From TrEMBL:
Domain of life where this protein originates: Bacteria
UniProt organism field: Devosia riboflavina
FAD-binding FR-type domain boundaries: 1-101
Alphabetical list of SUPFAM superfamilies matching this protein: Ferredoxin reductase-like, C-terminal NADP-linked domain (SSF52343), Riboflavin synthase domain-like (SSF63380)
Protein name: Flavodoxin reductase
Example GO molecular function: oxidoreductase activity
PANTHER family noted in UniProt: NADH OXIDOREDUCTASE HCR, PROTEIN RFBI
InterPro entries linked: FAD-bd_FR_type, FNR_nucleotide-bd, MRET, OxRdtase_FAD/NAD-bd, Riboflavin_synthase-like_b-brl
Length: 221
């Protein structure tokens, strides 16, 4: 299935991240944490598919993606940055494995936080955010996506760490086994992971070594 959808507007989030808000096709539904393959509806780009997670609430009037653009090569995300109201994207069937299974700790690397946005927004909107924690690693403080929004969610505990920003007053540690021992401690809970593949693999290994039940660890497969 391919659906051609109008971009309504784009909204800056960080220096290289934007919200892309789209007209919602009738009957097009998703659950928080799910994604679809997206293409740009321009000559030469229609067949270049990339997976992006919906970041709006599931009952929102319009659709939204929150996408980081990589300007170091002429790929899809770089081309997306040139789009605006009136341009079109191509959406496909909905899929995804990161779905909420109960309170726990969400751990993300950089733009890996995007699959968590709709989940946490939905929990916040329905009064079920308490008991959840969000830990995110970025290179610099200015890279943090939706920091103010997450920190304003009453009941959500947040922990930010940066790995290449000596001027920042935030925690400056990589998320490794020692980090998890000191900053998580309780491994008898749900964990949700998303980020670069090597990071997610390492986190799964660390959590298992520290006693977490593998069946309680959810990641995008």
């Amino acid at each position: 299935m391919e659906i051609h959808v109008d971009i309504l507007d784009t909204v800056p989030v960080t220096h290289n991240v934007r919200h892309y808000r789209l007209k919602r096709p009738k009957g097009y539904n998703f659950s928080p944490g799910q994604a679809t393959e997206v293409s740009i509806d321009r000559d030469g780009w229609q067949d270049k598919k990339r997976p992006f997670t919906f970041t709006c609430l599931p009952d929102a009037d319009n659709l939204e993606f929150t996408i980081k653009s990589y300007f170091d090569h002429s790929g899809v995300t770089n081309e997306l940055w040139s789009l605006g109201a009136g341009d079109k994207l191509i959406l496909r069937d909905v899929w995804g494995t990161i779905q909420y299974r109960g309170p726990g700790t969400f751990i993300a690397g950089g733009a890996g936080v995007t699959p968590f946005i709709a989940i946490l927004r939905h929990l916040n909107a329905t009064g079920k955010i308490a008991g959840n924690r969000l830990i995110v690693s970025n290179q610099t403080e200015k890279d943090i996506i939706l920091r103010d929004e997450f920190e304003a969610m009453d009941g959500l505990e947040t922990l930010w760490t940066v790995t290449n920003d000596q001027k920042s007053k935030l925690l400056q540690e990589r998320i490794d086994a020692d980090f998890l021992k000191r900053h998580v401690g309780n491994f008898d809970q749900n964990f949700y992971l998303c980020g670069p593949d090597p990071m997610v693999k390492d986190l799964r290994d660390f959590l298992e070594e520290l006693g977490a039940d593998v069946s309680n660890v959810t990641w995008e497969r």
